């Protein structure tokens, strides 16, 4: 078994995406918890690992990788017994890459535009245009979900990436079943994974609740 160290926290969607991937591959991770709100990611030691000061960061016996999408692909290519989670076939791989970039550039970016305001700028409410941007992202996901999974009929790392963010956002911006039936069905499918709750469900729920709690606290401290 390789010695894989992951700098991570359950609250972070990209960290959870990597944790889902590791579980799917049967890999054990040594988790080192990084508390971003306490500034653990800004220490000189951490900045040496990742000057971009983001988590997750993987340390695979001295090989350091500091980006969830890159880490997931690395783990599948290096340790996967098959290429199912990140297909080698060029067209299938392009579909997975497309969904990974959608997660990074749209789904996660729009969540982060909110969490930064709530946790760091301490805003008492989420501006309506940022909520609307998330709803538009839900719509884009719904309209592109024409198969069982986000990049086709098989589950891939793109599903881990997208579910980590969407399951977090729904904690404070609802994803109505009648308006987004395909997305809700896909989420239910992902929840069937035996390791889903441990690797993603608990942390996603925690993040949603934490956003709501922090908004209430920001409101109180404004008064
Ligand atoms: N595209 C990156 C995004 C990573 C990211 O922004 N992580 C957040 C936590 S969810 C973080 O580390 N923020 C701290 C910072 O930017 O200083 C990935 O997927 O790894």
From TrEMBL:
<dbReference type="InterPro" id="IPR004046">
    <property type="entry name" value="GST_C"/>
</dbReference>
<dbReference type="Pfam" id="PF00043">
    <property type="entry name" value="GST_C"/>
</dbReference>
<dbReference type="InterPro" id="IPR004045">
    <property type="entry name" value="Glutathione_S-Trfase_N"/>
</dbReference>
<comment type="similarity">
    <text>Belongs to the GST superfamily. Theta family.</text>
</comment>
<protein>
    <recommendedName>
        <fullName>glutathione transferase</fullName>
        <ecNumber>2.5.1.18</ecNumber>
    </recommendedName>
</protein>
<dbReference type="InterPro" id="IPR036249">
    <property type="entry name" value="Thioredoxin-like_sf"/>
</dbReference>
<dbReference type="InterPro" id="IPR040079">
    <property type="entry name" value="Glutathione_S-Trfase"/>
</dbReference>
<comment type="subunit">
    <text>Homodimer.</text>
</comment>
<dbReference type="Pfam" id="PF13417">
    <property type="entry name" value="GST_N_3"/>
</dbReference>
<dbReference type="InterPro" id="IPR010987">
    <property type="entry name" value="Glutathione-S-Trfase_C-like"/>
</dbReference>
<dbReference type="GO" id="GO:0004364">
    <property type="term" value="F:glutathione transferase activity"/>
</dbReference>
<feature type="domain" description="GST C-terminal">
    <location>
        <begin position="89"/>
        <end position="223"/>
    </location>
</feature>
<dbReference type="GO" id="GO:0006749">
    <property type="term" value="P:glutathione metabolic process"/>
</dbReference>
<dbReference type="InterPro" id="IPR036282">
    <property type="entry name" value="Glutathione-S-Trfase_C_sf"/>
</dbReference>
<keyword id="KW-0808">Transferase</keyword>
<feature type="domain" description="GST N-terminal">
    <location>
        <begin position="2"/>
        <end position="83"/>
    </location>
</feature>
């Amino acid at each position: 078994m390789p010695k894989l160290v992951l700098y991570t926290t359950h609250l972070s969607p990209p960290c959870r995406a990597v944790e889902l991937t590791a579980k799917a591959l049967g890999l054990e991770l040594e988790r080192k918890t990084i508390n971003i709100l306490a500034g653990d990611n800004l220490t000189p030691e951490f900045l040496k690992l990742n000057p971009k000061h983001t988590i997750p960061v993987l340390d695979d016996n001295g090989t350091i990788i500091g980006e969830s999408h890159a880490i997931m692909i690395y783990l599948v290519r290096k340790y996967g017994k098959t290429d199912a989670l990140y297909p080698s076939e060029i067209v299938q791989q392009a579909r997975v890459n497309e969904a990974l970039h959608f997660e990074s550039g749209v789904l996660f970016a729009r969540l982060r535009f909110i969490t930064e305001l709530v946790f760091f700028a301490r805003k008492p409410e989420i501006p309506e245009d940022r909520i609307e941007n998330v709803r538009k992202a839900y719509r884009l996901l719904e309209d592109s979900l024409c198969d069982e999974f986000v990049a086709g009929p098989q589950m891939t790392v793109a599903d881990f990436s997208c579910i980590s963010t969407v399951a977090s956002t729904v904690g404070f911006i609802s994803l109505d079943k009648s308006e987004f039936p395909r997305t809700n069905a896909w989420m239910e499918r992902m929840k069937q994974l035996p390791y889903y709750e441990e690797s993603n469900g608990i942390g996603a729920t925690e993040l949603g609740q934490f956003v709501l709690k922090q908004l209430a606290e920001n409101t109180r401290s404004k008064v």
